[in-house]
Every structure is written in C-alpha cells, then in structure tokens.
Amino acid sequence: xxxxxxxxxxxxxxxxxxxxxxxxxxxxxxxxxxxxxxxxxxxxxxxxxxxxxxxxxxxxxxxxxxxxxxxxxxxxxxxxxxxxxxxxxxxxxxxxxxxxxxxxxxxxxxxxxxxxxxxxxxxxxxxxxxxxxxxxxxxxxxxxxxxxxxxxxxxxxxxxxxxxxxxxxxxxxxxxxxxxxxxxxxxxxxxxxxxxxxxxxxxxxxxxxxxxxxxxxxxxxxxxxxxxxxxxxxxxxxxxxxxxxxxxxxxxxxxxxxxxxxxxxxxxxxxxxxxxxxxxxxxxxxxxxxxxxxxxxxxxxxxxxxxxxxxxxxxxxxxxxxxxxxxxxxxxxxxxxxxx
Length: 340
Ligand code: AHG
Ligand code: MN
Ligand code: MN
Description:
Elements (H helix, E strand, L loop, with lengths): L6 H13 L6 H7 L10 H21 L1 H10 L12 H16 L2 E6 L6 E2 L6 E9 L10 E9 L10 H4 L8 E7 L3 E6 L4 E7 L4 E6 L10 E3 L10 H12 L3 E2 L5 H11 L2 E4 L10 E2 H14 L3 E3 L16 E2 L1 E4 L1 H8 L3
Parallel strand pairs: 1-3, 9-10, 9-11
Antiparallel strand pairs: 1-2, 3-4, 4-5, 5-6, 6-7, 7-8, 11-15, 12-14, 13-15
This protein binds 2,5-anhydro-1,6-di-O-phosphono-D-glucitol and manganese (II) ion (2 copies).
C-alpha cells in the first residue's frame, strides 16, 4: 500500500525527530525546544543551562566526598587551605552563585536559607531549590540529589520583590526538575511539555538525552515509605502498608527522595511520606521538595497528593511549609487515598 504524508504530519514527524533523538546534548536540546516556552526569550533556556552547570560542579564535589572526609580527618582544611564545608552548604553556594551570575533569577528560596534571597536584579524568574537532598546519605556513599522549581515573577521587573512573587502555588511552575547523583548522574526536567532525562558523561562534561518523553507506569508494585515509623502513622496509612504486603509488593526506600522518586518513575511505584506523630504536617517541604516532583509526576502521567488533595493546588503560606506527600503511579496514589 502506498503511504503518503500530508505536509503537516511530515513536518511534525520531522520536528519530533529533531527535538528528541537519544544522545542529543542538553544545550542543543534546550535550544531545539525553546519555541515551546510561553515566553520564548531565551532567559529560561539560559537558566536551565546555569542549573546544569552548577550541577556539574556539585557532581564533582559529591564524587570527592569520600576523599574530602579522608583529608578532613587529617586536618580540617582542604588542599587550597579553605575550611571544609558541609556538602549541602557547598551545594547551596554553588547553585546560588551560578543563578546570581546568570541574571535571569531575581529571587531564590532554598532549604539552606531561613528567608528568601533577593538577587537584586531584573531577572524574571524565581527559583525554589533543595540544593542537596538526602544529605544523611552522603557519608554512606548512597545516591543524593538536587531538586528545583522555576516560577515567573508576578510583579514587574525593576520593582521590589513581593510576597506574590515568592509564595506561588505549584501549579504556577514553568519548569522543574532534579539532578540525581547516583551510579550515574542524571538531570531530569520538565518545562510543561513532558519529562526528559539526561545522563552526564563526565569525560566530556556534558549531559546527553538518555530518557526522552518519560512516562511513569500507571500501576506499579513498589512502595517506598519509612516503615520504621509505622507506629506513628494514622490507621489509613498502616492499612495501606498492610495492603501492599498482602499484594506482595516490594518495599524499596533509599531515604533520598530524589532516588526513591526516580526509581518509581522508571519502574512504577508509590512514595509516601505521611503525617507522623513527630511531624503532624508531614516532613517534606512543599516549596523545594514536593512541588517540583509533583509537577514532574503529573507531566509523566502520574499523580501527587497529600493523601487527599492535589499537591500543586496547595496555597503557600510559608517558605518552609511542610506537607504529607503521596507521589508516583496514578493508580497506586489513588488506591492509597481510598484508604482514608
Ligand atoms: P534533606 O536531606 O534535604 O533534609 O531531605 C531528606 C528527606 C528526603 O530526601 C527523604 O526522603 C526523607 O527526608 C527521609 O526521611 P526519613 O529519614 O525520616 O525517612
Ligand atoms: Mn530534601
Ligand atoms: Mn537538602
């Protein structure tokens, strides 16, 4: 049978081939897809490049973590004579510096800073970041990550930063992503047009597209929760855990949110950090942990809730606000909620 394409379908096939071939370098990918952004000024592209660059610097520090410990044991100074700094503080400095220099970001919210950081420039974007997630895993050589959310500022550039620029709902994000410093380093991000994953090639110092158009399976058989805290969970959470056991699901919990999320994104699963006796509002932070992953989950076909309500709809009242967090395969998140 003779096949024919009209102009439109031929063009769209061609453009998807250009936009998503495996092995495309991150810079080229960002450039090829820039026209998708609502504000195609190139600023968001530059911002993503700044984040990628800072992540490469952090990756270098993360890879040296064990060595730094050894050197730290000899004396508390590194070879350059600087005081040793905790890796999460260092990561915060690296990202803040890269974003400040870039000039696209006017304000930054970070786990490491009590208040937001006003970068005093004309930048149109606000960033919320967990520079190093899973920091308790650094010393034991287990995967850690960086999580970021990007928002447009709401007040006009050139005027003082206002609360409405900072306390934005997750649904206002224009881009979000994470870096996973794992057996290989990956950058996974979305600008609201699906989720793409890039793997870092250290000898070339470049990220390459390795996971185009990521989709989370609708169902899965992995549950990720700190089960040691079971006694302080509410009855519906305990019942759901029992359901997972009855179904012979696998329990997998790294204790690094990024690593647990990434595995479940690829394989199908659910991550839960519910309210506990110690943290009645949940432990995880809405602005720089949950919102980014919720956006990515939805963009990949999954979902994210508090166990009841959609994460991306939660009104922000505080920079360091916490929430209960259920994220992952759509049917699993729904099932877990049905126990409430
Ligand atoms: P951070 O290292 O940025 O403080 O975040 C740690 C978070 C998250 O990565 C992880 O899923 C969770 O805390 C683990 O908490 P528990 O040790 O209470 O399970
Ligand atoms: Mn964290
Ligand atoms: Mn952190």
